[in-house]
Amino acid sequence: MPGPLRGLPDAPLWVLVLRTVAALSAALTGLWASAMFLQYSAVNGLTPLAVVSAVFLFFSTSWLAWGAALGLIGLKPAPAFDRSALGPIKGRTVVLVPVYNEDPTTTFARIAAMMASVDKALLEAGEPDVPVHFAILSDTRDARVAEAEESWFTHLMAATAGEGRLFYRRRITNEGRKAGNIEEFFARSGGAYDYAMILDADSLMEGATVIEMVRRMEAAPGLGLLQSLPTVVRASSVFGRAMQFAAAFFSPVFSRGLARLQGHTGPFWGHNALVRVDAFTECCGLPVLSGPPPFGGHILSHDYVEAALLARGGWEVRLDTDLSGSYEEGPESVVEHAKRDRRWCQGNLQHIRVLMAPGLRAWSRFVFLQGVFTYVAPVLWALFLITVIADRVTQPPPNYFPDPYQLFPVFPSDGTAKAIGLTIGIFGLLIMPKLLTTAEAWVMERMPSFGGVGTVLRSVLSDFILMSLLAPVMMAYQTRSVVQVLMGRDGGWPPNRRGGAELTLGEAWAGSKFIVLFGLAGLVIAHFLTSHIFYWVLPVVLPMIGSPLLIARTSQPARPGRRGRRLFTTPQDMRNPAILALHDAILADWRGEGATPAGTASGRVGAPPAVASGP
Amino acid sequence: MGAVMSTKVPPDRRGATTGMPARMPAENPAEVPADRAMDALAAGRLPDAPHAMPEQAIEPRSVSRMRSRLRARLRMLMSSQRGSAEV
Predict the structure, then answer these.
(1) Which residue from A24, A26, A44 is spatially nearest to A416, judged by alpha carbons?
(2) Cβ B59–A287 below 8 Å, yes or no?
(3) Among residues A308, A106, A125, A327, which one has the least CA distance to residue A215?
(4) Is the bond preceding A294 in cis, omega lying within 30 degrees of 0?
(5) Which of A251, A241, A255 is nearest to A455 (CA)?
(6) Which of A427, A447, A490, A578 fits a disulfide with A293 by CB distance 3.0 to 4.6 angstroms?
């Protein structure tokens, strides 16, 4: 059954115009930067290397400008969602929780909290009989964790009185990873449900949000997938809290910009999203790509592909940025972030194989290209720096007396003003959307929920300093990831390490020594071979040389502070959401009744309490 | 409580993954009676309501066509080689 939107344009005309304007602005900004650079380089004669650098600069700056355009487009607040068409729920829903070597105590306590929250929301809505089931889909390979899962499931079942609506199964093999896990569920039980909420093991959603999303999908028969905007919560390290603040403060604006451009071809981020089972099963059976990983084999970043396939099948994929009550956890250290990024990098680069799939919407192809560029852009920046240094090294020394009978020296023209102008322009692209978002937060009175004007300004400034310091380190990690993937190295499927990720200096050194070595090499080359650009490369090479210190320090717990005065305060710090509080209470209850952590792979998997108790 | 855990996967569905259509029972999900699908719930098992998930064409036609042509040519080449060795 084709989706209702098959054959129709994927966006209204105004969206197509907006896309064109945004893309043209980005390209023109890139052209401006390249032209400035070429003018600067041409002062003393243009070299082939300078032209190559200008090409790298064009793509890198266009990419930055595209990000800035998304921010600008998202500044205007979204109109309130029209709820007049929403009615009582008729369909059956299942909440899918795929797990893979996770700590079952914490994960299953999340499920207990969500079950209680859904029940409460349905009761308040006067629809207590609406079926919402929960299925834990385990792909766990560690036998001890699997054993703990089974005993914690027994406890969860008793605690929630979940018979008939709570299920657990573990696959014998985990072929196809998460996508294969979900697919196996649909192949076995998909026919029993109309909607499936796909979560991650660290996802938490308010029951009211789950119910609201089901209502919205029922009201829109052409909607195949509804994505919520998950808020990062529970970060405790300096790095984690900075990322959490950025996600809460800046991301809604950028996501709104994205949502305005995508028309009916929205994103799927793999979790905290509701799918229409019929549409998903009809369109999203993923093939195994020919050839070995990293480019062949199972599709790693399956979510983007599934969104594109739904759109191809004539179904709408929508991101509703107004939905609150959707949470996830994020990495707590640069190293954990880099590990996740390695996986995403491989997944995004693999999309090159899918880019020309038959029948895809143009926007879907653009989204794949965008994903590829997310990881190629840092490489282009690195190549730009390398070619600029190489150009300087290979240039002959200036000839102050070109004329043999010349009395006074001729000094080479100084293009420093142009270089400074270019640098300011590029920094402007980085800072401007953030400054405008800060202004938007002030106008829209979002600041009190982030601790007030003073706390927000301190947090924005700290975020800028921290991210500027970490940018060269991230660039190094991403460049390494791209090189590894291009060399055919498969990153595999390492389990996520959640929570407590404090790193010692030794661990940080082990994870970043290649960055230090590259930074030192850059410093030496700049000092001895191209002394006139020495100071220009310092902001890049110094953070690289100090990366172990940066990584170790930012993985430490953030300094506590008074409510509302603490750096990187988010609305969840000001007021703990009900679902998080409930999860905390359940977890404390479960752990307080005699659960003793047993020595397992993660060291955090405990046995369930002997006596079952309700949340 | 062991009964509530449907950890036993039927042999035909073990590790069932992206090659789904070949391993799927030829049953139209629309024809699965809701009562039957839900019978399993009472026993604490996942509902027995299979849903077909046909494999999607993703690789560009030209590439897959080229690849299959290449494979066919290789096969031909191999068989002719074998033939000549036998002679």
Answers:
(1) A44
(2) yes
(3) A125
(4) yes
(5) A241
(6) A490
Cα–Cα distance between A26 and A65 in angstroms, integer? 5
Looking at the complex, report in whole angstroms how far the Cα of residue B41 sits from the nearest Cα belonging to chain A. 5
- Strands of the sheet containing A93-99, edge to edge, are A166-170, A132-138, A93-99, A195-198, A273-276, A223-227, A316-319
A373–chain B nearest CA distance, Å: 20
User: What single-letter amino acid sits at B5?
Assistant: M
The torsion defined by the Cα of A104, A109, A111 and A116, in degrees rounded to 10, comes to 160
Type of residue at A282: E
**What's the token pair of residue A341?**
């990024």
- pLDDT for B67: 67
Distance from CA of A186 to the nearest CA of B (A): 6
Across the interface, which of A180, A187, A277 has its CB nearest the CB of B24? A187
This prediction's pTM: 0.84
Cα–Cα distance between A252 and A330 in angstroms, integer? Answer: 16
Cβ distance A284 to B48 less than 8 Å, yes or no, reads no
Q: Please tell me the distance in Å from A143's CA to the nearest CA on chain B.
A: 14
Place of tokens 């983007």: A304
What type of residue sits at position A101?
N
Q: How many pairs of residues across A and B have Cβ atoms under 8 Å apart?
A: 160
Could you give phi then psi for residue A477, rounded to 5 degrees? -60, -45
Residue among B5, B16, B50 minimizing CB distance to A150:
B5
pLDDT in tens, A426-467: 888 889 999 999 999 999 999 999 999 999 999 999 999 999
- The CA-based angle A71-A24-A38, given to 5 degrees, is 100
CB–CB contact B46 A284 (8 Å): no
Q: For the purposes of burial, counting CB atoms within 10 Å of the CB of A478, is it exposed (0-12), middle (13-18) or buried (19 or more)?
A: buried
Residue A337 tokens read as 């972030």
Beta strands at A204-205 and A273-276: parallel, antiparallel or unpaired = unpaired
**A557 torsion bin: left (phi>0), alpha (psi -120 to 50), beta (else):** beta
Say which amino acid occupies A285: G
Question: A175: which 2 tokens?
Answer: 């072929």
Cα dist. B78→A60, A290, B59, B83 in Å?
48, 21, 26, 9
| Chain-chain contact of A188 with B24 (C-beta, under 8 angstroms) | no
Determine how β-strand A273-276 pairs with β-strand A195-198: antiparallel
